[in-house]
Amino acid sequence: MYEWNHMVQLMIDWVDNNLTQAPSLLKMSEQLGYSPYYCSRQFNALTGMTLRDYIWNRRISRAALELRDTGERVLDIAVKYGFSSQEAFTRAFVKAFDVTPNAYRKDPRPIRLAIHAEVFSPYHYLMKERDQMRQVHMQPAEIKIETIPAHKFIGIWDITSQNYGDFWNHGHNCDDICGTLESMSNVILSGQLNQTAGWFYQNGQKGYLYGIPVPVDYDGEIPAGMECREIPESEYIVFYHPPFDYLKDNGAVMATVEEVAWDFDPSHMGYAWDEEIKQDYQRHFPEGYGYAVLRPVKKLAQS
């Protein structure tokens, strides 16, 4: 049913793995066994852009990260990503980000990077039938304690959303938000993963949040449409499942972890939920980290 979603995702992955090698539609179509025209048409239908535009956007975005994070010469970066000259690269960079490469290198700021596209995902297609039909033996959620230092959190808090799907269906543009936050990955709080979601509580109501944790002394630019909140240091109970196959086991893993997280009594570990920190975190990086729900706690007074 989702054959072409899978095929186009393979094309997207091919592009991202070959950005410095001039990805070729002909080579990709040969790998997939379909004509270049048909591959191009399906790519446009599922991503909303031409393959050429996608490659251009991903190349200029990858180049921006290298400007920010490496000491390579601007000309070398330009040539690496297929630009004929530094001048051509500068024109493209200004068109994409409204700032010159040299100015961005001297003063990195939040910019909207083109993120890795996703067109084959259980989140998008709610492949519940597949999860229900699979008889997978899920290992129990691991439970451990982690201390997260005082930090700031930059992002969006949406009281009308209850989960990841709700959040992106309530008027938040995934490409804009994720692309902008990706450009800020160099200021992520030490020891923490990149973009993070979770839940917050306001007047007895539960909402959903999305953003990045940054150091408590961060005083840089806050992207338009986002806000910055200070979060005090706290211990968290982490309900965790190690890396897994996203397409096969995502729903089962999330259900396993969340069932334990929401029903757990922290007093068995000598803790109580910390009601002052009205924010739980969700880490979801299936193949690299796994899945976890983090809930803040405080130690019970010893009698």
TrEMBL record:
<dbReference type="InterPro" id="IPR009057">
    <property type="entry name" value="Homeodomain-like_sf"/>
</dbReference>
<keyword id="KW-0238">DNA-binding</keyword>
<dbReference type="InterPro" id="IPR011256">
    <property type="entry name" value="Reg_factor_effector_dom_sf"/>
</dbReference>
<dbReference type="Pfam" id="PF12833">
    <property type="entry name" value="HTH_18"/>
</dbReference>
<dbReference type="InterPro" id="IPR050959">
    <property type="entry name" value="MarA-like"/>
</dbReference>
<protein>
    <submittedName>
        <fullName>Helix-turn-helix domain-containing protein</fullName>
    </submittedName>
</protein>
<feature type="domain" description="HTH araC/xylS-type">
    <location>
        <begin position="9"/>
        <end position="107"/>
    </location>
</feature>
<dbReference type="InterPro" id="IPR018062">
    <property type="entry name" value="HTH_AraC-typ_CS"/>
</dbReference>
<dbReference type="InterPro" id="IPR018060">
    <property type="entry name" value="HTH_AraC"/>
</dbReference>
<keyword id="KW-0804">Transcription</keyword>
<dbReference type="InterPro" id="IPR020449">
    <property type="entry name" value="Tscrpt_reg_AraC-type_HTH"/>
</dbReference>
<keyword id="KW-0805">Transcription regulation</keyword>
